[in-house]
Design the sequence.
């Protein structure tokens, strides 16, 4: 089965890209391949100038640790660790001791400075997702990948998460790639690319309204069916 | 490391199995090694006032690995004692002849028969134990004795190797034993093997001076070396106890590794998503592996710290029972053994790390993507490593089992245990291969019912989970059946073999005594042999041989094996040294297929040179004549009594080892099922929402638990029966006659039922808690 086919896409630095497409269109696979979680059977993935094709598992892990951040739909945090410990985890795994205030500042950026000592079980879903964003950003990665980050959240929490991602792009020149099927979420992005059957079929450049994205999506689904 | 600590603290439930397994394992090993190390050879109490002792020369080792000693003759002992007594710093030198005396009260021999063999002493040796007369005078004439618990002037009835006697008490001694005049003691004992010195100077200097005097005629021991004078019978009791302890430690260690490994494997499988997440946020495979080891290290250290006091405090409580069942000598006490505790601690931690090894390696290969996958779809149940390890252990186990009949008897139980462990490990490793077809067969009749379908399909997609829960059952059932079956089969063979040789006759056997006196034997009409041990030097080496004296005959008769060993044929002369230290040259009169214990010499010579020897039994040809310390019984009963005594000890060993295994694996069954079921709560919630009642869910899980027990039982039973079959074939080949295969159904049924009950309880608990949470 081929999930992605003859797909050529670049996510320019400092931009917020939303990847959309119907279920099974290969958008998650694209994200996993681009992030170096999964290996493409053909073609090439280049992360921040480094081709990942020939890297060993160890080297790939190191690359991910240094250059790539992740936010998943759910189950993002290690249940045994506090919010602060979760945020510090990538640094510690890299063998680096967090600088004083580094972790607190990161939690402050996502508005959870007062929840540093709480465990995931004591946080709401939206708060957990914000801790996950803080953890993904703590290493100042070249690119942040988010896989349906609002999929498991209520509308208000979802908006807060999207606002944080947008702020990371605007304030810190962060590159963000987000997979979503929600036009309202995609409306926060600078650019929306549409996937179907593992191919890039369409794209919208510049900030677009949710209305416009929804129309485009509906049109695509009509064509595909 | 701090991450590991947090992990352990947060989800201790997942590590509880490892914790308990290691804590109990450490307690077991700490307790056993404490008991083992506390059991050191000790110089007999009656040498306590003699810091320097001289022992007759050793001439090699017997087949038990114990040194063989050559006695001094009475004349040699007396001469040597006189020279030693003259040394500066020596207050007295006393030869210590030992002989059999047993007190008779109201016509019945009293006291422990085995101890009685060493109860007779010369009066001058009483001072070696610091024993003094509290009343009366020392014995001077034959038939006079100084003893504890009898007033001077009274008369006591005793049995000696010669027969019943009445002795006059001349003095009361404040120590154990019967003390007779020195010349009398020398004539009643079979040579002298120890001369004790009492000193008023420096013991070390005396020992050095004594060495110069003694030269090659003996060995001077002082200080801790005196402990090597422990009687062989006492050492043998310690040896027996050590066998059980060694088996316990080996089995305990093995089962602990097994339990830890299966717990860790299950826990690692359940934590795939968490590990995937760690990998996604940047943990390298090496870091994941180290995390798993670190977690286990934390748990193992805590568990070992909990287990140590448990073992150290339980050990002293076992001293009494161990002495009671004859696995430790009288007077045995348990002392604190820091080395045992430290060793057990280290062992516990190493065992835990060994157990987690496979799981850690597996976990480190979890791809980061697994954090994103919702479903618990299993990977291939069999990996190449699992195939290889399973095949290798199976081959090794089979090899050991095939070799067993040709091994020395003493090594057989160890080999059997090792083979059982290997084969059962192989079965556990290879279990996933047969689980699928086995489950299909077992659940076939219920495939249409909802519960049957759920059980069947649920089990078929979770082969590894079933393998994990079935593994401890497999181990328990297989181990029990194999071990008891092997022992029962060997017993059957031995019983049958011995029974074949018994003529339908009446024998006169010892009754409350270690053997029959000369008087008791002489009164009977029948045949008997008086056993002794002689030393024969051949080709530069000296070895001990059992010899026996039949009632009549002259010269020496050898069996073929002994004749071949000595390269002697009829007409040759053989130089032998008797138990009393004297030598004579015997002419080989004949070589026969069988000759008693291998060598027959005239009874009258045995009696003369081994005055303390006792006859084992008389095969009667006339009607029995009553004698003190003897009774008549059928030959079959006589052999049976012997077998029963041995059987009791074997049964005790089996009971301890099986109890240990069942206890441990019961724990593992409970643990794996608790863990597996608790992790499936979301699944049960879905079932409930689809309309299943709490009772139906309970039936599904109970059926699954029973299925796991059934799979484990079948695999364990199959391994055991197959191994038993192989073992029987080997025994049959050796004996070249059919041997009945004994399968211990009763024991097996008990063990299986225990496993089933534990499994049901362990599944019901989390399910009931889970469904209550879902409804509440």
Sequence:
């Amino acid at each position: 089965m081929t999930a992605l086919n003859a797909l050529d896409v670049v996510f320019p630095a400092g931009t917020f890209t939303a990847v959309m497409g119907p279920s099974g269109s290969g958008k998650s696979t694209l994200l996993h391949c681009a992030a170096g979680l999964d290996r493409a059977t053909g073609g090439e993935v280049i992360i921040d100038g480094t081709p990942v094709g020939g890297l060993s598992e160890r080297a790939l892990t190191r690359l991910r640790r240094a250059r790539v951040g992740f936010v998943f739909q759910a189950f993002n945090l290690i249940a045994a660790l506090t919010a602060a410990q979760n945020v510090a985890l990538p640094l510690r795994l890299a063998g680096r001791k967090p600088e004083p205030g580094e972790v607190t500042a990161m939690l402050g950026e996502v508005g959870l400075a007062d929840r540093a000592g709480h465990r995931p079980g004591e946080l709401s879903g939206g708060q957990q997702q914000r801790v996950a964003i803080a953890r993904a950003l703590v290493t100042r990665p070249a690119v942040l990948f988010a896989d349906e980050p609002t999929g498991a959240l209520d509308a208000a929490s979802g908006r807060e998460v999207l606002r944080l991602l947008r702020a990371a792009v605007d304030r810190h020149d962060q590159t963000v790639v987000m997979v979503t099927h929600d036009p309202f979420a995609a409306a926060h992005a600078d650019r929306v690319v549409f996937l179907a059957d593992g191919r890039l079929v369409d794209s919208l450049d510049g900030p677009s309204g949710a209305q416009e994205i929804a129309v485009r999506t509906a049109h695509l689904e009509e064509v595909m069916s | 490391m701090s991450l590991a600590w947090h992990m352990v603290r947060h989800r201790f439930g997942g590590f509880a199995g490892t914790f308990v397994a290691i804590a109990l394992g450490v307690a077991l090993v700490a307790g056993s090694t404490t008991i083992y190390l506390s059991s050191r050879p000790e110089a007999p109490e009656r040498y306590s006032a003699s810091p320097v002792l001289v022992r007759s020369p050793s001439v090699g080792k017997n087949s038990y690995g114990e040194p063989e000693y050559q006695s001094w003759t009475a004349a040699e002992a007396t001469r040597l004692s006189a020279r030693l007594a003259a040394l500066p710093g020596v207050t007295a030198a006393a030869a210590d002849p030992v002989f059999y005396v047993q007190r008779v009260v109201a016509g019945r021999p009293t006291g422990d028969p085995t101890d009685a063999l060493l109860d007779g002493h010369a009066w001058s040796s009483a001072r070696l134990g610091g024993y003094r007369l509290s009343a009366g005078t020392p014995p001077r004439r034959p038939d006079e004795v100084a003893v504890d618990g009898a007033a001077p002037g009274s008369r006591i009835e005793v049995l000696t190797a010669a027969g019943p006697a009445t002795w006059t008490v001349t003095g009361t001694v404040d120590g154990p034993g019967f003390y007779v005049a020195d010349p009398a003691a020398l004539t009643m004992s079979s040579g002298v093997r120890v001369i004790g010195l009492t000193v008023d100077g420096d013991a070390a200097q005396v020992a050095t001076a004594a060495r110069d005097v003694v030269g090659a005629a003996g060995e001077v021991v002082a200080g801790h070396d005196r402990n090597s004078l422990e009687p062989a019978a006492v050492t043998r009791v310690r040896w027996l106890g050590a066998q059980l302890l060694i088996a316990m430690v080996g089995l305990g260690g093995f089962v602990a590794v097994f339990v830890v490994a299966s717990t860790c494997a299950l826990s690692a499988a359940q934590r795939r998503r968490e590990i995937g997440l760690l990998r996604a946020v940047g943990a390298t495979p090496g870091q994941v592996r180290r995390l798993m080891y670190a977690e286990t290290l934390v748990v193992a250290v805590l568990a070992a710290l909990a287990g140590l006091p448990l073992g150290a405090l339980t050990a002293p409580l076992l001293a009494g029972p161990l002495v009671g069942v004859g696995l430790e000598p009288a007077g045995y006490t348990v002392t604190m053994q820091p080395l045992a505790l430290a060793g057990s601690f280290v062992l516990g931690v190493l065992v835990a790390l060994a157990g987690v090894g496979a799981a850690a390696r597996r976990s480190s290969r979890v791809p980061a993507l697994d954090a994103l996958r919702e479903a618990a779809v299993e990977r291939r149940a069999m990996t190449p490593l699992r195939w290889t390890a399973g095949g290798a252990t199976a081959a090794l186990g089979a090899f050991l089992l095939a070799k067993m009949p040709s091994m020395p008897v003493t090594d057989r139980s160890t080999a059997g245990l090792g083979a059982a462990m290997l084969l059962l490990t192989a079965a556990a490793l290879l279990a996933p291969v047969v689980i699928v077809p086995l489950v299909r067969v077992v659940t076939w009749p219920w495939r249409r019912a909802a519960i049957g379908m759920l059980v069947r399909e649920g089990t078929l997609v979770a082969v590894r989970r079933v393998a994990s829960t079935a593994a401890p059952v497999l181990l328990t059932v297989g181990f029990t059946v194999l071990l008891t079956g092997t022992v029962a089969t060997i017993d059957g063979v031995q019983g049958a073999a011995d029974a074949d040789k018994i003529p339908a006759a009446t024998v006169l056997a010892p009754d409350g005594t270690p053997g029959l006196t000369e008087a008791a034997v002489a009164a009977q009409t029948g045949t008997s042999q008086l056993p002794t041990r002689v030393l024969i030097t051949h080709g530069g080496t000296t070895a001990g041989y059992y010899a026996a004296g039949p009632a009549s005959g002259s010269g020496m008769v050898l069996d073929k094996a002994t004749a071949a060993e000595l390269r002697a044929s009829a007409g040759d002369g053989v130089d032998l040294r008797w138990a009393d230290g004297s030598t004579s040259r015997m002419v080989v009169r004949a070589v026969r297929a069988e000759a008693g214990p291998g060598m027959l010499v005239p009874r009258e010579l045995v009696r003369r040179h081994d005055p303390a020897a006792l006859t084992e039994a008389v095969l009667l040809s006339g009607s029995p004549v009553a004698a003190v310390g003897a009774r008549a019984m059928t030959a079959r009963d006589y052999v049976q009594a012997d077998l029963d005594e041995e059987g009791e000890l074997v049964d005790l060993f089996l009971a301890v080892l099986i109890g240990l295994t069942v206890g441990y694996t019961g724990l593992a069954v409970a643990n794996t099922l608790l863990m597996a079921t608790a992790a499936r709560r979301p699944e049960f919630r879905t079932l409930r929402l689809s309309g299943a009642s709490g009772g139906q869910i309970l039936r599904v899980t109970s059926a699954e638990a029973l299925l796991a027990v059934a799979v484990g039982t079948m695999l364990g039973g199959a391994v055991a029966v197959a191994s038993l079959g192989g073992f029987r074939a080997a025994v049959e080949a050796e004996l070249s006659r059919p041997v009945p295969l004994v399968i211990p159904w009763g024991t097996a049924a008990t063990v299986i039922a225990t496993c089933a009950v534990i499994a049901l309880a362990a599944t019901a608990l989390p399910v009931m808690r889970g469904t209550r949470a879902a409804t509440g």
